[in-house]
Amino acid sequence: MKARGPWRIAKCWPASAAFVLAGCARAPSFDILGSFFPAWLVCLTAGLLLTVAFRWLLLRIQIVIAAPVLTYPSLTALITLALWLAFFR
What we know:
Elements lengths: L5 H16 L7 E4 L2 E4 H22 L7 H21 L1
Antiparallel strand pairs: 1-2
Helix pairs in contact: 2-3
């Protein structure tokens, strides 16, 4: 016989609870001067600083970027996500 009504919900309860409780893990964060900052914010700050250093290096060796409006935000995103994957995944 097929489960009907409340029994159908009762059979799905363990699987549903597993999906709901999987998101209850603690988010990685850093304690900086007494305040907790999320790890993605620290990675974004490091990505911005490394992008500025990369730009300084390119200017120093006189390499011209054709589309800096696209290049530098993309480089920031690339470095930020790479740092996140390297240290927190």
